[in-house]
Structure formats: C-alpha cells, structure tokens
Specification:
By secondary structure, the protein is an all-alpha fold. It contains 2 helices and no strands. The chain has helices at 6-51, 57-73. Helix 1 (6-51) runs antiparallel to helix 2. The relative contact order is 0.07.
Length: 74
Amino acid sequence: MDPSHAGDMLKHLEKQNGLLMEAYRSMSHELHKLQVEEEMLMRKFYEIMSAHGKIKKKIVVIFQIMAKLETLLL
C-alpha cells in the first residue's frame, strides 16, 4: 500500500467502523424488541389456551421451560 494514502485509508476505515457499529446497535435493538414481542405473544397464547382448557400438563411444562430459557438469554 502506498504510504501517501494511509491517511485516507484510515479515515475510510474509521467511517466504515462507525457505520457498522450503528448497524449493529440498530439490529441489536430490533432483536430485543422482537424477543419482548415474542414473550408477550407466548404468554397471551398460554392465557388463551388455558382459558379454553386446551393446555395439558406436558404443554404447561414446555412453556415453563421456555420462560426460564428466555430469562436466561435476556
């Protein structure tokens, strides 16, 4: 690489780094929103199914395990 272009290359890489960090933050935020929405939907689904008497013991255990896993991942 030509040493005379090192400054330009550094500026370019710093700009790219900033853009990538912004994209990372945006995607992380969106992922968190989706995880929260998923948890809310799963809880609502559980409530509806419980109200209609459709939940059997095995399904209840599965939901409990999923809830524990979600808390560990968040």
